[in-house]
Amino acid sequence: MSETLPSIQAATFAIGDFRLFALSDGEVSLDPVIFAHPEAVIEAKAQAARAGSETLQTAVNAYLLKSRERTILIDAGDNRGFGTETGQLIAAMKQVGIGPEDIDIVLLTHMHVDHVGHLADAAGSAVFRNAQLLVPDREWSFWWDDGTMSRAPAARLSAFKTARNATQPYKSCLHRFSDNEKLFSGVTAVSLPGHSPGHTGYLIDSNGDSVFIFGDVVHGTNFQFLHPEWGVAFDQDPELAASTRKRAFEMAAS
Which of 82, 109, 106 shows the shortest CA–CA distance to 169? Predict the structure, then answer.
């Protein structure tokens, strides 16, 4: 029996000299109890119930940024690492006329499973074989530090293995960048730690237009904008993540 996946989605925006494509890799189901604050759990359960479900359906997205000089992929989806209804990123890229071989740069917001899923194939080879991988230095240092991995609880070891396996084939074309570094004309990294040690957003700014891509700053759109202090179990440093959320919202509103 053939399997039916959710329809592939892509949205396109003009940002000055850039074209930005928001690409869907699919959705994952989240248990409302992942929200660390009791009131957040109540809100999440209510949101799920309104959709006729006991779980929250959360989109897994990546972004394609095209300029005259280069084609950049921001994050690499889940590819069924975290959920069974993901894995559509490559098809979504092809829908807008871009294949894996056309990617010049892959930028990561962080190295969690649902952001590195399509980097390597089943044989451990680079999917984006012509691309350079750009990763926040603090993020790379955390996931590739053997001492940190050895001290991690057993439940976290798979996250380290996934991050390493996904990025291993890009070690020869890796660039690690500093907090808030200007990466290219019109593309600046914005340090947003807390969800992970080196979690980073990207400010795209061109000819008076701008967009702020802030990764996993938000998981519950219906209530975290009103209550940035409400975090999720995935936040490695909950207090720092809350502070970062407030700062990210202020930046996005300015």
Answer: 106
Task: Provide DSSP, 155-211.
Answer: GGHHHHHHHHHHHGGGGGGEEEE-TT-EEETTEEEEE-TTSSTT-EEEEEEETTEEE
From CA 195, how far away is CA 245, in angstroms rounded?
A: 10
Amino acid identity of residue 215, one-letter, is: G
144-197 confidence digits (pLDDT tens): 999 999 999 999 999 999 999 999 999 999 999 999 999 999 999 999 999 999
Rounded Cα–Cα distance for residues 249 and 254 (Å): 9
Residue 227, by phi and psi: left (phi above 0), alpha (psi -120 to 50) or beta? beta
Domain boundaries, the chain: 10-253
- pTM of the model as a whole: 0.93
Look at the domain 10-253 and name its fold: Metallo-beta-lactamase; Chain A (3.60.15)
